[in-house]
Amino acid sequence: MNQDILMRALSNQPKYDGKYFTGRKKQSKPKRQSQISDKQRRIDHLSSNRRHALLRLHTDLDKLFIANSKVTRHSSSKQTKHHARKGSNGNLGVEGIWSSVTYDRYKRSCRTFLKYCFENFENVKQVRDIKPRMVGQYINALIEKDRSAKTISAYVSAIQKMAESAVKVGIKGHSRLVNEKHRQMIPIARKAERRRGSVGGVGYSLREAQVIVKQCGKHYSIYEQALLELLLYSCPRISEVLKISFDQIDFENNCVVMNKKNQNKNNRPRLIPVPEATLHKLKMLEPYLASSQTNIWGHRMTEKHVRHLVKSCASYGGVKYSGVHDFRKAGLQWYTKRLRKWSKERLVNEIMRFVGVDPKLNPVIKKNGLLVQKYDPQSLLKRQKRWLINQYCSQLLGHSRNDATSPYRR
Questions:
Q1: How much is the pTM?
Q2: H-run or E-run covering 4
Q3: Is 96 left (phi over 0), alpha (psi -120 to 50) or beta?
Q4: What is the torsional sign of CA 213, 217, 218, 223?
Q5: pLDDT digits (tens, 9 = 90+) for 126-167
Q6: What are phi and psi of 255, to 5 degrees?
Q7: Number of Cβ within a 10 Å radius of residue 2
Q8: Which domains are assigned to the chain?
Q9: To which H or E segment does residue 20 belong?
């Protein structure tokens, strides 16, 4: 290991000569609200008056969502979406918005829809001016763009929540804004057709991802290379990997136990395996961090830094940049090839290790009138090997459903 290169990587101003990634750490300055340009909003083609009219329409939308928001600070007596369920309808049909993540997603989707209505229909100045025919034409526009059934369904659900919020503030006509005809227009979401991206086929092949990692080791230090190896061979999300610290790494069992609050999607604790070569690099990095609780990469890198790092390494390797999340697709290819050589007993043991991280990953369920744990070695051994491989991959990606791996295989 070249110690000078590593010390440079961990310094405040590495100043790499990469096309996109310089490694420069942001200096501590008073935080100020970032300003979004008209080009970023994709409204730079509008006149000044039209831009202001569209922004007023977005402000009208914000007021609706605020009136229907149930998002509050955490407390022991806090009401949740679970308490608001309607009969045996599960979580469907619950009024209000109960999650900050859902709130932001609905708002982004509805802003896109309102922009479409503003540009394609006359006299759309307020949310109350939106009509059912506009919803139908918007769905057709999404279908023409080859958006997936899941994406179209998510947009319709967001518009439905906007209509619910509008009714709550007195716009009674919006109770029928999204109707059954609109629901019938949504393509059927077949498991075999699920995919990531608008047209499918996006992402890195395993070879392309390995080229990116190799170029990282060639042009940068093991600090950056260990990060990309973890993204490829352990399949965490970009926000998750930045919160990993040394006190979460189990060097004896070759894994990382990601159990910090708000580290994982839906706060679902998770174990991810780590190859020995990557663990060796992490052991060399450990003495250079003052505390075992310090985020290894997150203390000096942001998601933007990681994206620029991957983009630079892709450029060096002659690979078309696709994104950081698509490392998970390549990682799944790498694991699937190896899992086919494993015995059923080894697969079962690894799945039980995944779900043993936290009690809520292996809950007690009612089966044939008896209360049993969802996963146990005896019942898993009765499963087909193909099912066990899919279950292993789903747990690796941070899901519990076997079909969660389908979009990464397309």
A1: 0.72
A2: helix 3-9
A3: left
A4: positive
A5: 999 999 999 999 999 999 998 888 889 999 999 999 999 999
A6: -155, 170
A7: 9
A8: 42-189 (no CATH), 206-409 (1.10.443.10)
A9: none
